[in-house]
C-alpha cells in the first residue's frame, strides 16, 4: 500500500506508515529509520495508543470478514 507523504503531515504519515508496516510484516519492521523517526515523534503512551487502535481494527476486520462469510454461506443464492 502506497502512502504518499506529501498528502499528510509528517507526524501523521509516520503513524500511518508504521501501522502499515506492522500489519504487512506481522510486527517486524524492515525500515529501521522509519521506526526511529516514529519513536521520536510520539511518546511511549501515544505509541501504545496507536498500536491499540491498530490491533482493534485488525481484530474487527478479521471478525467481520469471518462473520460475513459464515452468514453469506447460509443465505440462499439470489435469483438470477
Provide structural commentary.
The chain is mostly helical and 80 residues long. The chain has one domain (7-74). The protein is built from three helices and no strands. It has helices at residues 10-24, 32-41, 44-74. Helix 1 crosses helix 2 (32-41). 4% of the residues are buried. The model has no long low-confidence stretch (mean pLDDT 88).
Structural class, from secondary structure content?
Answer: mainly alpha
Query: What's the number of helices?
Result: 3
Rounded mean pLDDT is 88
Proportion in β-strands: under 5%
Task: Report the uncertain regions.
Answer: none
What is the number of strand segments? Answer: 0
How many distinct domains? 1
SSE map:
Layout: H1 10-24, H2 32-41, H3 44-74
Helix pairs in contact: 1-2
List keywords for this structure.
elongated, mainly alpha, 70% helix, 80 residues
Concise description?
This protein has 80 residues and is mainly α. It is 70% helix and 0% strand.
Amino acid at each position: 500500500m502506497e502512502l504518499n507523504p506529501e498528502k499528510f503531515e509528517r507526524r501523521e504519515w509516520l503513524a500511518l506508515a508504521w501501522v502499515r508496516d506492522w500489519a504487512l510484516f506481522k510486527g517486524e519492521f524492515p525500515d529501521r529509520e522509519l521506526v526511529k523517526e516514529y519513536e521520536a515523534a510520539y511518546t511511549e503512551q501515544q505509541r501504545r495508543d496507536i498500536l491499540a487502535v491498530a490491533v482493534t481494527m485488525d481484530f474487527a476486520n478479521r471478525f467481520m470478514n469471518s462473520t460475513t462469510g459464515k452468514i453469506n454461506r447460509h443465505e440462499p443464492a439470489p435469483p438470477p
